[in-house]
Specification:
Elements lengths: L6 E12 L4 E2 L2 E2 L3 E11 L4 E7 L2 H13 L10 H9 L3 H4 L15 H24 L3 H4 L7 E9 L20 H15 L4 E4 L5 H14 L5 E4 L6 H11 L3 E5 L4 H11 L4 E3 L9 H6 L5 E4 L1 H4 L2 H13 L3 E4 L6 H13 L7 E2 L20 E3 L12 H13 L9 H8 L12
Parallel strand pairs: 6-7, 6-13, 7-8, 8-9, 9-10, 10-11, 11-12
Antiparallel strand pairs: 1-4, 2-3, 4-5, 6-14
The structure holds 2,3-dihydroxy-5-OXO-hexanedioate and magnesium ion (MG).
């Protein structure tokens, strides 16, 4: 073994990142959201970085994995999964069957959490390996097949300010079709995005239909997507599909669960996409056999890293299912990782999601910039990003000083600040 590639130390830094008051079917984003930054340091003195969810359920297994890693090589990526199974105690999460508030990714369980933890270590190992070898991460994945990756504008209904703190940015509120179109216009003008996704499940379906219609009028012929995170019944999903069939590129998770998705898919020609009913390998056979989805939104945090994302791409290709990319609140390390893996997947036919434009804070020295709706794929060694240690320390200090309110993402709790009677809506909501 090349001893320079052996891991000597692993550093975990939980942070809180500011987040705007974006609405979804569960509630509203809190003013701060937790993330975990993983650093892997080799004996050769190279440091690689990764990023994942920072809620308590992820921190515990991350600490176990971090303790077990020194002495192993950064090339031992396939071994990470067995190691995580061995050392990460899933008991705290296994009993926890609730729908994951942070990821809106269906039911959360210990296995899914472990994969999200592994994803950050895999990315950090790839970054370290790439830096040590002078190779970009995409080269370690077999090489890029495109020089830039297209992203989609991720539109949200939103408030102008967070209710308790009053903290606001300069986007203003977007609560009706005109507000959504204005937000889309700013995204298009600033970043050049050519396709638009609206996070739905917030208002009654007719209001969201009107917003998509307004977008279609303002941006004729552009790909449009609507994603209510499973908030609708089968009949409601079919009603929306019928109303919007001439303008939607796809409808994302209109309803919850493979059964319901299959029922909707059987009765409409509008393609259905998911980042909720297919988020693990175990969920694929039934969903594909029943034609429940035409597009899977990959997410390396869900699937266990960049290699596993490529495996997912191969499975989708085999079954003629399209691939796109899901995102929730993340920073520039994960955006770099997403871009590297997206650059290596030959048949990525849809623009990827990214929350990144909503994140005003980051832990890297130079923010990514979208041009023409695209990010250039970096050819620098590793991920091609540098950690800004001062920013990391400042965001970690915020985490340390937090009284616990923001250490667990909880969109329903944030909503209760404005509406004390709010509880996470049961599905179907409409
Ligand atoms: O289905 C999706 O695209 C998501 O769940 C993305 C994010 O979680 C988004 O809904 C959010 O953060 O409110
Ligand atoms: Mg979605």
């Amino acid at each position: 073994m090349n001893t320079a590639l052996v891991i000597e130390d692993v550093r975990l830094t939980p942070i809180l990142v500011s987040d705007p008051p974006l609405l979804n079917t569960q509630g509203v984003h809190q003013p701060y959201t937790p993330r975990l930054i993983v650093e892997v340091v080799t004996r050769g003195g190279t440091t690689g970085v990764g990023e994942t969810y920072g809620d308590g359920a992820y921190l515990e297994p991350a600490r176990s994995l971090a303790e077990a890693l020194p002495g192993r090589a950064v090339t031992d990526l396939n071994g990470l999964f067995a190691l995580a199974d061995e050392v990460c105690d899933g008991s705290h999460a296994a009993a926890d069957d609730r729908v994951d508030a942070g990821g809106l990714r269906g039911v959360r369980n210990a296995g899914k959490i472990r994969l999200s933890v592994v994803s950050a270590f895999e990315v950090a190992c790839l970054d370290a390996l790439g830096r040590a070898q002078g190779l970009p991460v995409h080269a370690l994945l077999g090489g890029k097949v495109r020089d830039s990756v297209e992203y989609s504008a991720y539109l949200f209904y939103r408030w102008a300010a967070h209710p308790a703190s009053g903290e606001r940015d300069d986007w203003g509120a977007a609560l009706d079709p005109a507000g959504v179109v204005a937000q889309a216009r700013r995204f298009a003008d600033t970043y050049g995005f050519g396709s638009f996704k609206l996070k739905g499940g917030v208002f009654e379906p007719d209001r969201e239909i009107a917003a998509i219609r307004a977008l279609a009028e303002a941006f004729p012929g552009r790909p449009l997507r609507l994603d209510p995170n499973g908030a609708w019944s089968v009949p409601t999903s079919l009603y929306v599909a019928e109303q919007l069939k001439d303008v939607l590129e796809y409808l994302e998770d209109p309803t919850s669960g493979t059964d319901n998705m299959a029922a909707v898919a059987a009765a409409t020609d509008v393609p259905l996409a998911t980042n909720m009913c297919v988020t693990t390998l175990a969920e694929i056979p039934e969903a594909f056999a029943r034609d429940a989805v035409r597009i899977v939104l990959s997410d390396h945090h869900y699937w266990g890293g960049l290699h596993r994302t490529r495996e997912l791409a191969g499975i989708c290709r085999t079954f003629g299912v399209g691939l796109s990319m899901h995102s929730n609140t993340h920073l520039g390390i994960s955006l770099a990782a997403m871009t590297h893996v997206a650059a290596t997947v030959p048949d990525l036919a849809y623009a990827c999601d990214s929350h990144y434009p909503w994140q005003t804070e980051d832990v890297i020295t130079e923010r990514h910039t979208f041009t023409g709706g695209r990010l250039t794929v970096s050819d620098a060694p590793g991920l091609g990003v540098e950690l800004d240690r001062d920013r990391l320390a400042a965001l970690h200090r915020r985490w340390l000083e937090d009284d616990g309110t923001h250490r667990e993402r909880d969109d329903a709790a944030a909503m209760r600040v404005a509406d004390p009677d709010w509880t996470t809506p049961a599905v179907p909501r409409w």
